[in-house]
Amino acid sequence: MLEPSIECEGPESGHIVMAERREDLTVLLVDVSDSTRLYESLGDEAAFREVRGCLELFEQAIAANGGRVAKQVGDGLICVFDEPTTAVKAACDMQTGLRDRMAGRPRPIGIRVGMHYGSVLLDGDDVYGDTVKLASRMAQFAASGQIILSGEAVARLAPALQSVTRLLDELAVSGRDDAMAVHEVLWQESGEYTQLPGRFEAMLAQAGIARMKINHGGRESVVVSSLTMGRHAGNDIVLNDRMASRNHARIERRKDKYVLVDLSSNGTFVAMDGGDLIRLRREEMIMYGSGRITFGHAASDADAEIVGFTVD
After folding, report:
1. I need a labelling partner for 262 at 20 to 30 A (CA). Which of 26, 39, 91, 177 fits?
2. What is the DSSP string of 102-133?
3. Distance CA 23, CA 127 (A)
4. Which CA distances in Å does 111 have to 77, 94, 171, 309?
C-alpha cells in the first residue's frame, strides 16, 4: 500500500521566494536509482563520471522535447515542460536512451521518473510549490525503470498516450478532498527495460510525435535525442568511408523535428526517395520522408557508405 498521506509544504523555512510569476506547468523529476551502491562499486571518480554522462543524456532529451532544467538535486534533475505530453515523451527518451547506453554493462544504472501537472511559483529559473513536491513524491514512489505520473498529468495527455498508461493506486493527500491517482507509463513490458514492441511507437505516432529511424549495416535504430556519425570510434554510427570526416555529422531532435547538421570537410549528401539530391556543407536541414545519407560523395558512387533514414 502507498503511504497514507503527503504533507504539501511551501518553500523551505528561511528562504524567501520572490516569485516572478505563477504558471501551470508540468514538473518532471528524474533520479538515478541506488546511486549509493554505484559509488561503492565503482569508486567516487568513476561513478561521478558515469552519473554525469547520464545526466547529460537526460538534459538532451529534456531540451529536445521543449523542456528546461530548473536545477540539479543530488544525482537527479528537476525540470519543467508546458504540457505533460512532451514531458512523457522526454521521460521515455530518457529511459530508452539509458537502456541503450547501459547495454552490456555489468552494473547498469536505472532511473526513476515522476511528474505532476499544476501551478508552480517561478523564481528565476527555479520552481517552487506543491506541484514540485507532488512530482517528487511520484518519483519516490517509482521503482527503477518506471515512469510515474499523477492523475492531473494523465488528464492532459494526448489521447494516444493516455492509452499506454495504467492506474496503479490512489493516494490520500493532506489538504486535498480527493485521493491522488497514481499512474504508470507502459513504456516497457517488464522491469527488464524491454520496450513494448511496436505498440508504443504506434501510440506516439497517433499523438503526432515524429519518430526517426536509421538503418546502417543491417541494423535499425531510433534517434532518441541526437545521433553522431563519423570515422571516430566515439560516434554513435562509426563510418568506414574514406571520404568521411572523423566527426562528420549529427542528427538532433528539436521539439517535433529532426535536423541533420553537417560538420565535415567534404560535405554530407542526402538523396531523397522522391529523387531530390541535397548537399550540405557546414549547413543543416530539417529531415522529412525517407532517403539515404552519404558522406563526402553521393550515394551513386559505388564505394559510398549509406545510412538510410525514415521520418514518420
Report:
1. 91
2. HTT-SS---EEEEEEEEEEEEETTEEESHHHH
3. 10
4. 11, 9, 22, 30
What does the pLDDT look like over 98-121, one tens digit per residue? Answer: 888 888 777 778 899 999 999 999
Q: Which structural domains are found in the chain, ordered by start? A: 21-206 (3.30.70.1230), 212-311 (2.60.200.20)
* Radius of gyration for the chain, computed over Cα atoms and rounded to the nearest angstrom: 21
| Amino acid residing at 52 | R
Give the closest residue to 251 by CA, choosing from 243, 240, 262, 242. 262
User: Any alpha helices (H) in 175-306, and if so which ranges?
Assistant: 199-206
Q: Which residue has the cell 522535447?
A: 65
DSSP annotation string for 49-86 = HHHHHHHHHHHHHHHHTT-EEEEEETTEEEEEESSHHH
pLDDT, tens digit, 9 for 90 and up, residues 246-260:
999 999 877 678 899
Residue 122 near residue 99 (C-beta atoms within 8 A) = no
Q: Are the CB atoms for 21 and 122 separated by under 8 Å?
A: yes
Alpha helices in 83-195 (DSSP H): 84-102, 130-141, 151-155, 159-162
Three-class DSSP category at 46: helix
CA quadruple 289, 280, 64, 198: dihedral sign: positive
Are 261 and 271 a contacting pair, CB within 8 Å? no
Cα–Cα dist 65/63, whole Å:
5
Q: How far apart are the C-alpha atoms of 25 and 82, rounded to whole Å?
A: 5
Report the alpha-carbon distance of residue 10 to residue 174 in Å, rounded. 13
